[in-house]
Amino acid sequence: MTTSQVSPQTTTLRILRGTVTNGKLVQQTQDFTVPYDATTTVLGALEYVKGELDGSLTFRRSCRASICGSCAMVVNGRSRLACKTKITDLLGGNEGKNIASAEATVGDANVIEVGPQRNQPVLKDLVVDIAPFYQKVKDILPYVQEGPEQEEHVTKDSFSQVNMVSNCIMCGACYSDCTAMVENPSFIGPAALAKAYRFVSDPREGNKTERLKELSEKNGIWDCTRCGMCIDACPKGVAPMEAIVKLRSLAMEAGITNNDGARHAMVFKDDIATWGVLNEPFMLLKTKGILGSIAQIPNALNLAKVGKIPNPFPFDHKVDKLDEVKAIYAELKKNPLDVKTKAADSGPGAG
Ligand code: SF4
Ligand code: SF4
Ligand code: FES
To answer: Which residue from 117, 176, 229 has its CB within 8 A of the most atoms of ligand 1, so it is best to mutate?
Structure first.
């Protein structure tokens, strides 16, 4: 009988490497062939590259157990923990883990693309500067404050609200995948807003209303586009967008409505209740006022050029079965949702 050695399977790790020279970031991809088996993670593959092929490859890691949050990076287009992501899941796809196959994402069934987190300056290879991310968390004052509001009894529900966000390991994956950050780097971002919700929902917090006022200002809760990317990215089930939606509801309940975001939400609600459809030109006017709307004229002209100016008179096309829409509103008026104890909102568009 002869014995034959089984050669390990290999895959190509296509790593976006980068160095900063004279203040300028220069990036290029480099391919490495790495062996893998059913247990190999992206972090394991990176360590193979560093140990066996190129010791200059730079990345962060510490616990290797999805606890420290230091190994978050972009893998096949999405931000993930390298130590939690298996090569086999990336190559073949894993529906349960919401991972599409390499064929579907990279276009090559045996290539895995790895790059540094987005929305943060790259320092070297896969290492980004996390100082701005941490600064935003510091800015929301991440501790319980004394204040005029009375202490409340800590119920199981109030504990579960606090606990949901306490699972955050500060990996920055949500921040990296946040679409609002791309347009507005000053946006507080999903992790810090989720952390803020943790304190607003803490029964011991004394400055809830003050917090909600500050969070309703520019770069805060109303700047989120509710794309849902942070929910997908979070490896700990924190669901930052849900926390943001709850903060919005709490701010409006507290009467903090003198801002574009809250006005937009109220006009949206009224339009749907009246016509079952949005009146977008009037919505702009009611949200931003006359001066704010005038400032939007260049945008409106651009939309007009591509035939995308909506009809300002929706009276002709109010939805069929408007009575059913009105019945939903009547029911919600009778039995309002309790945003403090409501189970998680689901998916993009909630709230
Ligand atoms: S839902 Fe909001 S916070 Fe989350 S990724 Fe999208 S824009 Fe960012
Ligand atoms: S909310 Fe989730 S994705 Fe964002 S930093 Fe915390 S653990 Fe990471
Ligand atoms: S190495 Fe700690 S979370 Fe991945």
So the answer is: 229
**For residue 84, which atom of ligand 3 is closest to its CA?**
4
**pLDDT of the residue at 172:** 98
Q: How far is the CA of 322 from the centre of ligand 1 (A)?
A: 31
Lowest-confidence segment of 7-21, 79-93, 96-110, 275-289 by average pLDDT: 275-289
In testing the pocket of ligand 1, which one of 119, 225, 247 has its CB within 8 Å of the most ligand atoms?
225
The secondary structure of 182-241, three-state, reads HHCCCCCCHHHHHHHHHHHCCCCCCCHHHHHHHHCCCCCHHHCCCCCHHHHHCCCCCCHH
Q: Does the beta carbon of 192 sit less than 6 angstroms from any atom of ligand 2?
A: no
Check pocket membership of 230 for ligand 3, CB cut-off 6 A.
Answer: no
Q: Cα-flanking dihedrals φ and ψ of residue 342, to 5°?
A: -55, 140
CA distance 313 to 271: 12
Q: What is the pTM of this model?
A: 0.86
Could you give the domains of the chain?
Answer: 10-127 (3.10.20.30), 130-277+318-351 (1.10.1060.10)
Q: Which ligand is nearest to the CA of 351?
A: 1
Atom of ligand 1 nearest to the CA of 190: 3
Cα of 175 from ligand 2 centre, angstroms:
8
Looking at every residue in the chain, the average pLDDT score rounds to 88
Tens digits of per-residue pLDDT, 24-57?
999 999 999 999 999 999 999 999 999 999 999 9
**Per residue in 75-87, is it b (16+ CB within 10 Å) or e — as a string?**
bbebbbbbbbbbb
pLDDT digits (tens, 9 = 90+) for 132-180: 999 999 999 999 998 766 666 778 877 877 788 889 999 999 999 999 9
